[in-house]
Write a structure and sequence with these properties.
It contains three helices and no strands. By secondary structure, the protein is mostly helical. It has a domain of 56 residues. The termini are far apart.
Length: 88
């Protein structure tokens, strides 16, 4: 997915936040959960932007559905991550 297609206000600081979650190469379960939460917030914000663009006529319904499918797959991959099975 082209990152320029879906941008949101969250994008400005999220990349740096994701990079600074862990001070080591291997994240702790708590750090992994925090990263996963940030990733879910990004996906949610991207969905909101897509729907807004569709509602204002900036984005075709077919294109929106394709990108939403990609976001659904990304969200599903977060759900099936080992992090979702770790208790902190």
């Amino acid at each position: 997915m082209d990152p320029r297609l879906v941008s949101s206000p969250l994008d400005s600081g999220v990349t740096s936040a994701l990079r600074t979650v862990s001070s080591s190469d291997v994240p702790t379960p708590a750090e992994g959960k925090k990263t996963q939460k940030l990733q879910r917030e990004i996906v949610s914000a991207q969905r909101d932007v897509l729907m807004h663009w569709r509602d204002t006529g900036r984005l075709d319904e077919v294109v929106m559905r394709r990108v939403m499918r990609e976001l659904d797959l990304e969200d599903e991959s977060l759900s099936s991550s080992w992090l979702s099975r770790v208790r902190t």
